[in-house]
Amino acid sequence: xxxxxxxxxxxxxxxxxxxxxxxxxxxxxxxxxxxxxxxxxxxxxxxxxxxxxxxxxxxxxxxxxxxxxxxxxxxxxxxxxxxxxxxxxxxxxxxxxxxxxxxxxxxxxxxxxxxxxxxxxxxxxxxxxxxxxxxxxxxxxxxxxxxxxxxxxxxxxxxxxxxxxxxxxxxxxxxxxxxxxxxx
Length: 184
Description:
This protein is of the alpha+beta class and 184 residues long. The chain has helices at 2-7, 9-29, 55-72, 115-127, 139-149, 164-180; strands at 43-48, 76-83, 97-104, 133-137.
């Protein structure tokens, strides 16, 4: 075997270089996400309210959201919500931030066995609510995103400047543009 390799060394080196080049080409065509999205079974809705909200107002608004979701989306079995920071301050959030954990019923009890369908029904229900912004994630996915990026979501946009009115206009336009983009 060694004699063969020495005899045809130029051809072997050429084959190795071609295979290496092909592997680089294949690597460039694969996805850039290192951790694929998995279905964890449950959903977390990150709810953000106005920053000046009081604890009592936050509690009342969150209860309205939970009652509405339980009424409108029969796939939800129960809801557990966490508002603000814990005593240790390991997860810094204001009173205007709530993580709403949705425990879903078994898929056999769903109207359609699709998590996208359930999320769309939740979105339709929450779109009717005034005074909240919301995003969807999953328990493990939320923690991994926070650890990797320091942000509670897959995407974050920082807008800097001194003119608050202009910053708000830019933020609203970005929001519209992102809702229209399907991420393809």
